[in-house]
User: What shape does this take?
Amino acid sequence: MFLHVSLAWESLLLLAPHITPTRQEVFFFGTAAGDLRFTEAQLPVWIDNGKHLFYGIPGNHWRGFKIADDTRGPVIDPTTMERQISAEDWLLHAAIFRLRFPALADAPLAESRVCQYENSTDQNFILDHHPEAENVWIVGGGSGHGFKHGPALGEIVSDAVLGLKPPPRELSLGRLLKKSPI
Assistant: This one.
């Protein structure tokens, strides 16, 4: 147990300069009961590549029409981050939603949440052995997208851990540590 806890803290200290936690807000707008035009069966996922990187997921398992800004938010301390949505972000998301989907201009806010992303400095995932413990793996650096990439990344992790295939070089911890100013 002590070895595990000790390595966990070492890993945090090792990765701290290379992982940036950010605050991200997500909103779900309600659609009219029985109106199937705004479900995933009728409307594709969309993304706008402008000053902000807004995306939407229609239907989203009947939780409402999801809209979020994937532009990296402010850097935060994960232990003290405010978990309430901001009025500014709510107004911005609602305006983008009304502009993009005028038929839903009066849609109520059904759900919202504040998420935290953890991003590696080069925005790639991390998959590598702990530098001081060959039987410990470090996997992460892609929060916010980790779930979406879960099946593919899970296969890469499984192959690496089982010794079937080495992880791609671009996921190595060394790529980040070489760039380190320390």
Summary: The chain is about 25% helix and 25% strand. Helices lie at 2-15, 87-100, 150-161, 174-178. Residues 2-15 form the longest helix (14 residues).
